Amino acid sequence: MEEVAHEAETGKIYRSNYVDKHGRTVLVMRPSCQNSKSTKGQIRYLVYCMENAIVNLPPDQEQMVWLIDFNGFNMSHISVKLTRETAHVLQDHYPERLGVAILYNPPKFFEPFWTVVKPFLEAKTQNKVKFAYSDDLNTKKIVEDLFDMEKLESAFGGNDDSGFDVNKYAERMREDDKRIPAFWTRENPQLAAPQPAPTCSVDLSSVNLNSDFDASDNDKVHSSLSHVSDSEGLPPNKGVLVTEGSDNGSREVH
């Protein structure tokens, strides 16, 4: 935890203290809280959070939920490179670990960005992405069907307004770090005696981390959405995916 402590300070990614109705661990992501320009640091922290989420899954579950809060998100937070590498890590190193990803209240300019980055995702991963809007009853039901609204934080329409506390979160993570070596030894009995908890157990050599910014890709996105106002929201029912975490079939709300 100490090696990625800076990345965790703003609560841009954290494991929630609640689970969904299926008992799945929840990772909350707040891209507007980005506090680093280091792609490597951001990916290392993502991997740390993924490992932590897996350790906290119940015995009958193998998948987690991502809740992505777009409050405060603007075009300066867009990074095609980071999104591409995130997709690479998720699909190549954690296949089938994502049950569903809910994108909550993305702004209108996110639509062309999604068009650019969607091809990075395999079809089965695309089908796990849902768009939900606080002012649209059809998509609000997606959230209500998955979560106990009394426990869900207010940023996603729930009734818990306690917010993110970095000190309490750090304490939880330090306790979890103590459990990680024993967890992976139990998962793989062939491993040697438990070692100190790794900050990042995934080999990042296959991830393109040589530069922290890909101007050419971002320019393509910015040129396609330069006419869009940051303050506008996506039309509530346009292209809303309501596919559950299963790989079998999908349906769209029109």
Automatic annotation (TrEMBL):
What SUPFAM superfamilies would the database entry show? Answer: CRAL/TRIO domain
Give the InterPro entries listed for this entry: CRAL-TRIO_dom, CRAL-TRIO_dom_sf, PI_Transfer_CRAL-TRIO
> What PROSITE patterns does this protein map onto?
CRAL_TRIO
Region of interest (Disordered), residue spans? 215-254
Q: Domain CRAL-TRIO spans what residues?
A: 1-164
Matching PANTHER family, A to Z?
F16L1.9 PROTEIN, GH16843P
Q: What is this protein called?
A: Sec14p-like phosphatidylinositol transfer family protein isoform 5
